[in-house]
Structures are given as C-alpha cells and as structure tokens.
Amino acid sequence: MPEFTPTERSRVRRRPQRAAYDEATVYKVLDAGILAHVGYVLDGQPFVTPTAYWRKGRRLYWHGAAASRMLRAVGEGQPVCLTVSFLDGFVLARSGFRHSLNYRSVLAFGRARLVEDLEAKRLAMDDFIERLYPGRTTSLRPATEAELKQIALAEMTIEEASAKQRAGGPIDYAPDEGWPAWWGEIPLDQRLGAPKPAGLAAGAAPRVALEAEAPCAFPF
Amino acid sequence: MPEFTPTERSRVRRRPQRAAYDEATVYKVLDAGILAHVGYVLDGQPFVTPTAYWRKGRRLYWHGAAASRMLRAVGEGQPVCLTVSFLDGFVLARSGFRHSLNYRSVLAFGRARLVEDLEAKRLAMDDFIERLYPGRTTSLRPATEAELKQIALAEMTIEEASAKQRAGGPIDYAPDEGWPAWWGEIPLDQRLGAPKPAGLAAGAAPRVALEAEAPCAFPF
C-alpha cells in the first residue's frame, strides 16, 4: 500500500495510534471533503482561508478570483498546509477531563503553482463540477475564454500528508465510576435539505455527491 | 455597534459586499462553531490544526495536551489566524462558472498565551463543557489537579477579525438563459444522530448546543 513518508513536519506526535500515512486513508478523507482550510504565510503572518477543493491523483486543486490575495500568495510557491476535517460526533464521559470528539482530519503539505493554460483550467473546472454533481457538466453552458481568464486555479502536489481520526464512545476510566452522569456518544452528520429551484428550473435537482464514492479516474 | 478595525491583514478584498467587521456578526459565527482551524508558523512552514474552541468576550480558547506542538508553538506568542467556517449549501447555476457555495466564515487574528493558573484552567474547561452541553458540569466528576496539569490551555485576545458570508440562490446571468440545466440552491445542515449510551448510562442524553444560542455571560 503506497504511503506518504512522514518527516518532522507531518509526523503525528499526539496520540500516534490515531494516525495514518497511507494513501488510501489520506485520500478517503480528502475525497469526502468539500471545504478545505488553506494555510499560508505572508510576511510571517499565517492566514487560514476556507475554500472548496478537489483531488486528482496526488494533486489537490482549489480556485478563486484571479485577483485573490490567497491565490497570488500560494501561486508563488510558498509552503502550504491544506487541512480537511470532519466533526463526526461528541464523546461524553462522566468527567469533563475525559470528554472527547470524534473526527477525521488530514493535513496535506506541499507547494502550489497557478495553472495558466486555459484548456487545463477548463478540464479542472469540469472535474470540480463532476466531483460535486456527477454527470452535470454535459448539461451546462460551457465556459468562455474570458471566464476562464478570470479564474485563478491552484494546483498542489502533496509532498507529505497525515490522517488522524477518532471514532467510538468514551473509554472506561476508573476514577469516573459511579458518577451519575450520562455517558456515551452522540453522532453528528451532514444532511442535504430540500432543493430550492430558481425560477423555472428544468427537471429534478442533481444529486450532490456529499461524500465522493470513487476517486477521480486518474492513476495514482 | 462595536467593530473590529480592519487593517491590511483582515480587510476582505474579494467580494467586500459579503464582509462584516462588527462584533455582533463576528461573534454570531464564532459562537455557532465547534471546530476551528488554527493556523500558525514554525520555521516558515504554515500548520493548520483543527481543534475545538470556545469564546468568552473578546477571547478565544482552545486546549490540548501539555506536550502538543501546536500549543507550545502558539503559547510562545507567535501570530495566529484562527478560522471558523460553515458550508451552508450548494448554489447551482446553468454554467459551471456561476456555481457557488453558501457559507459563513470568520478569520480571527491575534497572539495566544498559555494559561497556567489551575483555577483559571478549571473554570475555562467548565466553560467549554457548558458551551457544548448546557448545565452538564454540575453532574460530572470534578477535574483533579493532576488532570488540569496535563491540559495546555491557549487564550487568544482577538486583535482583528472579519466575517464573510454568502446566502441565497444563484444570481440570474444573461448568458446562461435558455440552458436546460436545473438551477437553484441545495441547503446543507448538520444534524445530531441518536445518542449511543455507554454501558448503563444514567438518565437521558444531554442536549448538545450545536449552535450556541446565547453568548457566554461575559461583558464585551
């Protein structure tokens, strides 16, 4: 099973038993997410920008306006940490100290570049739409050259990545025994609401791939 | 209405019509969140760590193990960017270019310190439990001194913050007219699942305050 090789940068120190570095685990988390938090540094100041992203093989993509400060900064090849996380539930113990949260997260490290080629941009934006709404691109009005020029597209090859997760209920803890508090697990999930058509929308609302079932069709 | 004064660091450049700097808007987003993404810099490398947080007045708190690299780093007073974001829905247009997402987000900037006083730590951890499960602390086994010493608690006074949000459906766009694609909005929400008691849990599961109704009882 291919693995990312952790260095000091990506090795999980706290609770290493919850960590994984294999591509399958890392990609499973990355493919389930829609919003990432992109961390970058400008003049020593960290910035964390939430943004939609998608994966293709070992590469992560995100986009925005050509004038975006974040995209200009990461496009210069500065180091980036892109983090994806899910809060999966609440873990309640009989002492505050033993409460916890269930989660999945990935920290991906690399350097980004801006993709300038218009055809590559067009294909990448189609990948993004297909990631969210499988099969949708064929019914859409195609992007014009002027529109593609307004988009800045960042591409980051993952140099290192680590996954970390916790699942399950609270762990029995002797000092808490006998305390009359409820203990257990309360799951948390994301749910889609009823679609709200705009004007006279044609046909049924498309399916949103909240958790991408299959990785992009790209060798990795 | 009190406002954070934006500088170059926190002023929203892209789509400034979606931005706000008043405390009421910023705190409303911060008080609805449970996971933050804490950005910090170590030797020029950005790190973005997902972590639970809570707010009291103009201060943000998060905690972890005393040995945590993140907490040691931010405890040295380096600049921090703490970001909270929600994906509230999908906005589908009749061209890929005009698709969007509905979201709420806050970027909060400041420098953190580690709280060492054990009594202050105890009170802060109680605030955290009460934030998530109102009324729960009274039924829990109190923390011991040894447990409080194992916790590192970061406190950051917000120096600057900006909120940004988008809501509503797609905006009508002349070039898309007549394209036979569904367009509209598909909301996304977080829902709690059925509680899973551990062993013989006492009574009913506590209520989780998924979106905190009231700010902490602290003057701001």
UniProtKB/TrEMBL annotation, chains A, B:
<dbReference type="Pfam" id="PF12900">
    <property type="entry name" value="Pyridox_ox_2"/>
</dbReference>
<dbReference type="InterPro" id="IPR024747">
    <property type="entry name" value="Pyridox_Oxase-rel"/>
</dbReference>
<dbReference type="InterPro" id="IPR012349">
    <property type="entry name" value="Split_barrel_FMN-bd"/>
</dbReference>
<protein>
    <submittedName>
        <fullName>Pyridoxamine 5'-phosphate oxidase family protein</fullName>
    </submittedName>
</protein>
